[in-house]
Amino acid sequence: MSTVVLAYSGGLDTSVAIRWIKEKYDLDVIALTIDVGNDRDLPAIAERARQIGAVKALIVDGRADFVRYFVWPALQAGAVYEGQYPLATALARPLIARLMVEVARAEGAVAVAHGCTGKGNDQVRFDVSINTLAPDLKIIAPVREWSMTRDNEIAYAAEQGIPISVTSASPYSVDQNLWGRSVECGILEDPWAEPPSDVYAWTVAPDGKTPQEPTYVEITFQNGIPVALNGEEVDGVTLIETLNKLAGEHGIGRIDHIENRLVGIKSREIYEAPSATILLAANQALESLTLSRDQARFKEIVAGEYARLIYNGQWYSALHQDLAAYVQSTQRFVSGVVRMKLYNGHSAVVGRKSEHSLYSHSLATYDTGDQFDHNAALGFIKLWGLPLTTQAQAQLLPSIGVEENLLKSSTIQLLDGKTK
Ligand code: ARG
Questions:
Q1: Can you tell me the distance from the alpha carbon of 67 to that of 237, in angstroms, rounded to the nearest whole number?
Q2: Looking at the structure, do residues 64 and 104 belong to the same domain, yes or no?
Q3: Atom from ligand 1 closest to the CA of residue 81
Q4: Do residues 308 and 187 share a domain?
């Protein structure tokens, strides 16, 4: 009998899928549950898969790989989609796809399957990644193929004797991993509606319930990657978990985003990303000390492109390899310590230091010890402004009366709708 490897979460969709695939495609299902920090009872999930009829149920701990090969590069890149979303869900997809392909190879499966709907980004990320890594594997997406509503699915499960723990009280669709928690559906589909408190699970409401005293934390970075908290070395998984908890208690990392999906839909998602919020700010703080003005400016462009390619499912692309090489190069001096203050829903960088700092006190100071050559400023200003003064004299000033003010004749008239 041929087999299919199904990415199994233990939820309603993928539970029903085990039986549905068997019926529709006559394939044996191997359930693969991947831990990317989703906080679930994994042995119980695997047991449920077997009960429903999976011939095998595998659990893979992908957390360390997720952090090392997906989260850290995205952090170093400063990847944030549309200025708001730190990309937790989007980053885990290419790892899950890779593991699905690896298990499919090891098990000699002819197909892989996932529980994505036909409306979202995740189907694109999975399918494009799988097609890129293993073009010969067939992809089955039951939820995209069957036309069942949630109630239909529950009825199907009952009829088939599929044991499901329908925690259907929750009206939300939730996806989570170490880098963040994504919540959509229910009342959140109304962009005017304030998210109810039950949307949040990782963050305390920053309205009086967070600690009265701020917490300070020192984060040590090596080449843009955080390696220690308050001077104590920790592995990546622990570091992210610790900060999620610490910042979550202070209500940090709530994001309310109307985003542009790849498939053309605008959707509203609530994110909780305490660690990501802090670490992205801390990495950038260290960059502000160690990158030149032009490096920082160019990296902002790269960050936008990097975020887009993660969001759009292009992880396994040559463009990604090229951008990643650039990003790694930018991080070679991004080592040092950032001191952050966590309080009442906000995190603030309050201190930063680095052996490779470009900050020069003797150049910056207004006090004694000033080494900056003030006289050189005059020559600089003359040359910097030379194109402007030249153009003003050749083109702008002759066209208006000498008495008339240049600002008045141009900008103000333009804003008033009068062109000259
Ligand atoms: N909108 C996010 C993305 O496309 C998250 C998608 C999954 N969200 C969810 N609540 N299941 O990356």
A1: 7
A2: yes
A3: 12
A4: yes
Domain boundary among 120, 151, 170: 170
Question: 329 is in which domain, residue-wise?
Answer: 176-364
Tens of pLDDT, residues 138-190:
999 999 999 999 889 999 999 999 987 655 558 899 999 999 999 999 999 99
Residue 228 alpha carbon to ligand 1 centre in Å: 30
With the most atoms of ligand 1 within 8 angstroms of its CB, the residue from 95, 173, 175 to mutate is 175
- Which residue puts its alpha carbon closest to atom 1 of ligand 1? 269
Q: Are both 140 and 37 inside the same structural domain?
A: yes
**Both 216 and 136 in a single domain?**
no
Task: Say whether pTM exceeds 0.90.
Answer: yes
Question: What is the pairing mode between strands 111-113 and 56-61?
Answer: unpaired
- Could you identify the atom of ligand 1 that is nearest to the CA of residue 185? 10
Whichever domain contains 47, its CATH number is: 3.40.50.620
347 ligand 1 Cβ < 6 A: no
C-alpha separations of 98 from 9, 60, 129, 135 in Å: 16, 12, 8, 13
Question: What CA–CA distance (Å, rounded) separates 109 from 123?
Answer: 20
Query: What pLDDT, on the 0 to 100 scale, is given for residue 75?
Result: 98
The verdict on the CB of residue 92 being under 6 Å from ligand 1 is no
Going from the Cα of 310 to the center of ligand 1, the distance in angstroms, rounded, reads: 13
